């Protein structure tokens, strides 16, 4: 085996991404509010950059005046009402004020409350809690019973089964046999293996169905009823509207901020004799030029993308059609002459305000299903709607299996596999035919 050493010349093509290019790509992914924050951050580091911020531009002057007038009103008692619910912990602690508890019981109850998850379930075992607190298990059992007696019903449960039982015990209309079923036949009951229950408890399928319907009205996540989170509002990044048969596209960030260069300060600094000062000023000046160019390019791409979407989805955006046409990101990318990844970045986490409401941009993209003619003429959204309609109209005593839905779709000229039907049904949160079956 011969090994030779030497210097060789070889040509290679590499993609060398500069820091500016990386940031320019990142700008595509920013929402309008994130972009405004990014510009503000640069303004704190660049003395030549002047930014006029206007975060409240999405509100009309009329609505702002109305808010100011309401706030100034002495009789506006709503101003003193918090805009969010108390935390689950505080909500439960407030109910304890009427309880006569010993110091040990109060400490134990507080400890258990702090170990409830957001759904209201207890995440620690009583034995472990007693060991940590160095208190008897009897106090722990009493503390748990106290928590489970509070509102909302089902709070403090250790699993779904116990959560349902706690709620049934407070329900005056609940048949005692239902509690017995949930306690001793929970899995069989949940998976509709009701023949066994019917035989062993001498209860008709009709009655079991009625009890099952009652359970559907209960809350599986009682803690979620109490939230300490503020309501999150969606702020559109693109606004489109049609006036006099002309579509108008507005990028929201145009209203949030405006960039200027402090030319006077720039020329003043450039007259300084120190070379380092001049180099620094030139660098900051170029940064602003790059920022303005990148934002303008981002804006142009967003507008072009929205024009292409409008061209393909105009009936849907106007509300005259309920279903989207098949349209992938690659379709739009080819139409406006950019890479598919650019469309993916632009659509990420952004919303568009349209004539039919504010919707996520990603929702507008959908693949197609094969029709009898072999064309991708029907969107997945339309196929899902067809599946939902079929299941809504089926005989609940003999619901359609996924394979039967495949055959029914095929009669309508839509070709999909059974696996695809199962996937779409699960995405629609529709249970299987076994769980949809009713006995009354």
TrEMBL record:
Entries under InterPro entries matching the protein: RNA_pol_sigma_54, RNA_pol_sigma_54_core-bd, RNA_pol_sigma_54_DNA-bd, RpoN_core-bd_sf
Residue ranges occupied by any RNA polymerase sigma factor 54 DNA-binding domain in the UniProt entry: 279-438
Keywords, alphabetical: DNA-binding, DNA-directed RNA polymerase, Nucleotidyltransferase, Sigma factor, Transcription, Transcription regulation, Transferase
Domain annotation RNA polymerase sigma factor 54 core-binding: ranges: 85-265
NCBIfam families (alphabetical): rpoN_sigma
Homology family: Belongs to the sigma-54 factor family.
Protein's name in the database: RNA polymerase factor sigma-54
Gene (name only): rpoN
């Amino acid at each position: 085996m011969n090994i030779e050493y030497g210097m060789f010349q070889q040509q290679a093509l590499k993609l060398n991404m500069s820091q500016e290019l990386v940031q320019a790509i990142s700008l595509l992914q920013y929402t309008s509010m994130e972009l405004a924050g990014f510009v503000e951050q640069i303004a704190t580091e660049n003395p030549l950059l002047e930014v006029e911020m206007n975060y409240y531009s999405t509100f009309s002057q009329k609505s702002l005046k109305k808010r100011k007038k309401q706030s100034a009103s002495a009789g506006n008692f709503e101003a003193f009402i918090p805009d969010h619910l108390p935390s689950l912990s505080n909500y439960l602690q407030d109910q304890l004020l009427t309880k006569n508890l010993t110091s040990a019981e109060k400490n134990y109850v507080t400890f258990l409350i702090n170990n409830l998850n957001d759904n209201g379930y207890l995440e620690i075992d009583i034995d472990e809690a007693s060991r940590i607190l160095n208190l008897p298990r009897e106090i722990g059992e009493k503390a748990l019973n106290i928590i489970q007696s509070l509102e909302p019903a089902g709070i403090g449960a250790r699993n779904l089964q116990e959560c349902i039982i706690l709620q049934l015990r407070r329900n005056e209309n609940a048949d005692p046999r239902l509690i017995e079923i949930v306690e001793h036949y929970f899995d069989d009951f949940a998976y509709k293996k009701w023949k066994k229950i019917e035989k062993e408890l001498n209860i008709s399928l009709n009655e079991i169905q009625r009890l099952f319907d009652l359970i559907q009205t209960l809350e599986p996540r009682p803690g979620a009823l109490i939230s300490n989170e503020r309501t999150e509002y969606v702020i559109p990044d693109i606004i489109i509207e049609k006036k006099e048969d002309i579509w108008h596209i507005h990028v929201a960030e145009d209203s949030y901020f405006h960039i200027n260069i402090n030319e006077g300060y720039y020329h003043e600094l450039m007259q300084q004799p120190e070379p380092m000062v001049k180099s620094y000023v030139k660098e900051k000046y170029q940064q602003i030029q790059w920022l303005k160019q990148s934002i303008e390019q981002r804006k142009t791409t967003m507008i072009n993308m929205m024009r292409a979407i409008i061209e393909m989805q105009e009936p849907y955006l106007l509300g005259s059609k309920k279903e989207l046409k098949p349209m992938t990101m690659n379709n739009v990318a080819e139409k406006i002459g950019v890479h598919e990844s650019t469309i993916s970045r632009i659509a990420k986490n952004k919303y568009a305000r349209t004539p039919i409401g504010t919707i996520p941009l990603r929702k507008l993209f959908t693949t197609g299903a094969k029709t009898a003619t072999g064309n991708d003429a029907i969107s997945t959204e339309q196929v899902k709607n067809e599946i939902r309609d079929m299941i809504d109209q089926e005989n609940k005593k003999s619901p359609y299996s996924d394979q039967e839905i495949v055959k029914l779709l095929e009669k309508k000229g839509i070709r999909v596999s059974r696996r695809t039907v199962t996937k779409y049904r699960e995405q629609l949160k529709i249970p299987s035919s076994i769980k949809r079956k009713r006995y009354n």
